[in-house]
Amino acid sequence: MNIKKIFCPLIRTDEIESDIYGGLLIAKKFEAHIDFLSSQMDFESILDMTISRSNMFESLKGAFATELNEQKNKNYQIFKRVCDDLGISIGNIASVASANFETQNGIRSRVYEYEAKFCDLVVTACPIKGEATSTFDAAVINSGKNAIIMPNSMKKFSMDNILIGWNGTTSISRSLTNSMSILKKAKNIHIIVTKKYDNSVLDIKTRLLSYLEYHDVNATFEVVTTTNIPGEALLENTLKGNFDMVIASSYGENGVKEIFLGGSTKYFLENTPVPVFM
After folding, report:
1. Gene3D superfamilies from the xrefs (predicted)?
2. For 4-39, how does the pLDDT look when each residue is reduced to its tens digit (9 = 90+)?
């Protein structure tokens, strides 16, 4: 996958500077353009439904408009400052890292789901406490795009050492193929698989490594033991190997329902120190 256009929905409004910084690091690494989008509720439509047109309505409308406009300007100034700090050009500039920032009014999940369809890659922060929200699902799952989920306060971004969590699903198969351009540039790639594949693990190993070799990608392979906490084994192996990125699966039926070993992604997303490609 040739990544030229990245979309970053700003879901954590209280951590906007951190998320912009992380998104710009990723755009810089890919030498791609990134669009940041913040969403604000259209309070006029809400007030129209609840308050009759009156002096009270106009007073509330003016107060909301002023507050929203101040926050919009503050967010843009943060964006501009971080772009300056990282040497990222503002605007649409071909073949170099560039960025734009926009604020739209509307229901956040709907705005993000629509805009996410017009990019090569979605980049967003891990949801708070690892819980996938409707807004997170809309941008990451419903867009149909691959995504990089950033850990909280990501200060550097590297794709040199990559861990692949193979679980045999359609999702991980798709993630593996769509990350091939990333894998081809990596220095070290390690695949882990759970012991549930005891009867077929040799065939899985042979087929995966052979598939990657067609793309001139070399990898190592390991069978790992699970724990009682879903996501813990993946996290432990990520930390043990000092990996820069994890490539994992996602399930779209009920949002991000699983990564790698089954069960909830909550533990892994809440604790991962590295970005996840899915």
Report:
1. 3.40.50.12370
2. 999 999 988 788 999 999 999 999 999 999 999 998
